[in-house]
Each structure stands twice: as structure tokens, then as C-alpha cells.
């Protein structure tokens, strides 16, 4: 009998893959505190999380029978991969199921930022009809700089072209030929910083990408640039972004993710030119079903000794 712990909210359509199997029991306990997770983890063969639960080395070292950690989503930065590998635990994710939702959210955030929709909406809800205060910018003919042209960055590029934007992208795996095929401009990191009117980041959070948008990077950007981060907190240095917003170097920022989550009380959120959502990039019915189904299949397969799709 395999025992699987569901530690974060995961769509029921995915969990149905695990339920109704005679060899699997499922325990759903979301919102466990770190010490509670540490004391319970030894009971389980499988662990399923989204991004809230931090699967640290101390959790992993107490996970005597754990064979697999499933991440219902893309980013595995909340899981200590080194500790998992050392302890013979496989980590699987669901890299494709939320690509579309994250790309749509990025576009929604860019448009909200450009047209000051959240600010105007709040004012109107407070009985303030302030048409002249909320004059925005068109995105048409502006340049969108994309840092990280993977699954989501690519979908954002196609959508931006649909909005008649020029797109320049930097990714270590992007070639000029591929950029030509996509009808976008190939650039080095510095080219993106210098040429873009809007910059959106879509890299994973890695040692190399942590704070890659730094004070020095902001200095190279156009005055009045707009920043979007629907990838991971920490890719943009938040103190540097704050200073760049206060000085007016950056005209506005749209943020779905911050270094410390959940976030409520953060200096960036006090600035009127910042629009924010609480890590909603993948929060659609479609994406949550899709990532949950994918990851639950992999967990079940691995526990039964079959091949997994997304190690
Ligand atoms: P992906 O792996 O398909 O793409 C990431 C790309 O970043 C790759 O092409 C890679 O070559 C590139 N990259 C790596 N290092 C780089 C660097 N130093 N400079 C430039 N590019 C670099 O991943 P994805 O599915 O497109 O996801 C992108 C990000 O979005 C991840 O951080 C993921 O966790 C995050 N995400 C967030 C949400 C959300 O809810 N906000 C939803 C889904 C994904
Ligand atoms: C991801 O990396 O897939 C995202 O952060 C989405 C999520 O899990 O909420």
C-alpha cells in the first residue's frame, strides 16, 4: 500500500487519478507548518505540492519511505533537489499544463499596467470618477523585451506580436535563426535592457538568474520602462526595483510573484505605479486540472515501478 500526502491545494480532477486505486491511500493535509510536515513525512511514499510548501533538506532527511515528490506546476525552487537526489527521491513536475495560463496572465498584467486598470477600478469603487488621472499608453509599436524564451516566454512573444508589438528576446538557447522563424529580434541580455519599452522575465529562479535584474541592469534600461514579473520572485532585485520606481526610471511594474510569499505587507505594494496579483499566473481551472492530472499520473506510475514523463 502506498501512502501519498497532498500538502497543497491540488485540483480534484488530478486527485481522482490517485483515488480509487486499491494500492494507494491519499491524505490531504494542506497548510501544514514546517515542523508538522517534518513530523508527518515519515508516513508517506509520495508527496504532492504546489509552491506554498517548502520541501527542505530537514523535511527530506526525515522522509524515510518517501520515493517521489510531485510538483503540480513548473518551478521546483521550493524543493531541495540536491537533498532529494542524495536521498534517492525522484522529483517530478508538470511543465506544460500551465504555460498558456501563465502567458495569458502576463499579457493581462502588461495591459493592466499600461492602462492603469487596477488603479482606475479602485478609484471608481471609491466613488472617484477620475478620467484624466488614468491616461495610459498603447502597447502597439512598443518593444517588448523577453528575458527567458522557454515555454511561457515563447507564448508571450506570439501574443505580443498579435498586439502589434516588436519583440526582442534573450535566452542562452535562442539562436538568430529561431528568432527569425518566430518573427522576433534576437538579442543579448544588454540589448534587451537597452531597447525595450516593456521587459518581462520568464526564466527559472536559479543561482544565475537570482537578481539578474539588478541596479546595474536598471541603469541600462530606457527611462520610463515598464517591468513585468510573472515568473519568480528573486529574478528581479526588489530593492533595486523599488529605487528605480521611486526615481521614475521605471514607470510601473506588474508583479505576480515576490521573493517572500505569501506577500501582504511589502514596500513595493505601497507604490501606486505597482499592480500586483498573489501568484495567480497558473490559477485557472484549466491549468490546475492539467498540472494535477499530469503530476498524479507520474506519482502513481513511479510508485508502481513504471516510467515517469517529467522527472
Ligand atoms: P522554461 O524552462 O520552459 O523556460 C525557461 C527559459 O529560461 C529557458 O528557455 C531557459 O533557457 C531560460 N533561461 C535560463 N537561464 C536564463 C538566463 N540566465 N537568462 C535568460 N534566459 C534563461 O520554463 P517556463 O515553463 O517558461 O516557466 C518560466 C518561469 O515561470 C519559471 O520560473 C516558472 O516557475 C514560472 N511560472 C510561474 C507561474 C506563476 O504562477 N506565476 C506559472 C508557471 C510558471
Ligand atoms: C509554477 O511554477 O508552476 C507556478 O508557480 C504555478 C503555481 O504552482 O502556482
Automatic annotation (TrEMBL):
Molecular function, one GO term: NAD binding
The role this protein plays is: Catalyzes the reversible oxidation of 3-phospho-D-glycerate to 3-phosphonooxypyruvate, the first step of the phosphorylated L-serine biosynthesis pathway. Also catalyzes the reversible oxidation of 2-hydroxyglutarate to 2-oxoglutarate.
Lineage start: Bacteria, Bacillati, Bacillota, Bacilli, Bacillales
BP GO annotations: L-serine biosynthetic process
- Which residues of the whole protein does the chain here span? 1 to 311 of 527
Q: Which residues form a coiled coil?
A: none
* Class in the EC hierarchy, top level: oxidoreductase
Top-level taxon: Bacteria
The answer on whether this UniProt entry bears the keyword NAD reads yes
Q: Which family does it belong to?
A: Belongs to the D-isomer specific 2-hydroxyacid dehydrogenase family.
Give the E.C. number(s): 1.1.1.95
The answer to whether UniProt assigns keyword Iron to this entry is: no
Q: Give the catalysed reaction(s), semicolon-separated.
A: (2R)-3-phosphoglycerate + NAD(+) = 3-phosphooxypyruvate + NADH + H(+); (R)-2-hydroxyglutarate + NAD(+) = 2-oxoglutarate + NADH + H(+)
Q: Which UniProt keywords apply?
A: Amino-acid biosynthesis, NAD, Oxidoreductase, Serine biosynthesis
* Annotated protein name in UniProt: D-3-phosphoglycerate dehydrogenase
Q: In which pathway does it act?
A: Amino-acid biosynthesis; L-serine biosynthesis; L-serine from 3-phospho-D-glycerate: step 1/3
- Organism, as annotated: Lentibacillus amyloliquefaciens
Amino acid at each position: 500500500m502506498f501512502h501519498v500526502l497532498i500538502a497543497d491545494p491540488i485540483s480534484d480532477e488530478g486527485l481522482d487519478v490517485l483515488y480509487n486505486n486499491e494500492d494507494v491511500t491519499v491524505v490531504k493535509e494542506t497548510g501544514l507548518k514546517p515542523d508538522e510536515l517534518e513530523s508527518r513525512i515519515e508516513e508517506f511514499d509520495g508527496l504532492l505540492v504546489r509552491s506554498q510548501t517548502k520541501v527542505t533538506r530537514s523535511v527530506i532527511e526525515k522522509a524515510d519511505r518517501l520515493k517521489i515528490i510531485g510538483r503540480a506546476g513548473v518551478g521546483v525552487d521550493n524543493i531541495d533537489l540536491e537533498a532529494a537526489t542524495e536521498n534517492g527521491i525522484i522529483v517530478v513536475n508538470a511543465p506544460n499544463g500551465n504555460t498558456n495560463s501563465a502567458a495569458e496572465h502576463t499579457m493581462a498584467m502588461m495591459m493592466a499596467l499600461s492602462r492603469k486598470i487596477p488603479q482606475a477600478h479602485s478609484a471608481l469603487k471609491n466613488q472617484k470618477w477620475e478620467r484624466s488621472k488614468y491616461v495610459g499608453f498603447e502597447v502597439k509599436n512598443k518593444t517588448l523585451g523577453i528575458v527567458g524564451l522557454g515555454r511561457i516566454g515563447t507564448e508571450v512573444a506570439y501574443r505580443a506580436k498579435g498586439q502589434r508589438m516588436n519583440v526582442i528576446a534573450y535566452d542562452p538557447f535562442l539562436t538568430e535563426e529561431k528568432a527569425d522563424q518566430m518573427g522576433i529580434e534576437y538579442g543579448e541580455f544588454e540589448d534587451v535592457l537597452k531597447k525595450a519599452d516593456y521587459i518581462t522575465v520568464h526564466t527559472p529562479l536559479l543561482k544565475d538568474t537570482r537578481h539578474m535584474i539588478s541596479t546595474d541592469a536598471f541603469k541600462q534600461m530606457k527611462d520610463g520602462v515598464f517591468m513585468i514579473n510573472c515568473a519568480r520572485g528573486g529574478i528581479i532585485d526588489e530593492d533595486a526595483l523599488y529605487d528605480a520606481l521611486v526615481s521614475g526610471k521605471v514607470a510601473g511594474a506588474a508583479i505576480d510573484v515576490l521573493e517572500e510569499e505569501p506577500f501582504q505587507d511589502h514596500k513595493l505594494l505601497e507604490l501606486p505605479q505597482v499592480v500586483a496579483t498573489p501568484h495567480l499566473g497558473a490559477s485557472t481551472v484549466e491549468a490546475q486540472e492539467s498540472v494535477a492530472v499530469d503530476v498524479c499520473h507520474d506519482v502513481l506510475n513511479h510508485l508502481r515501478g513504471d516510467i515517469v514523463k517529467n522527472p
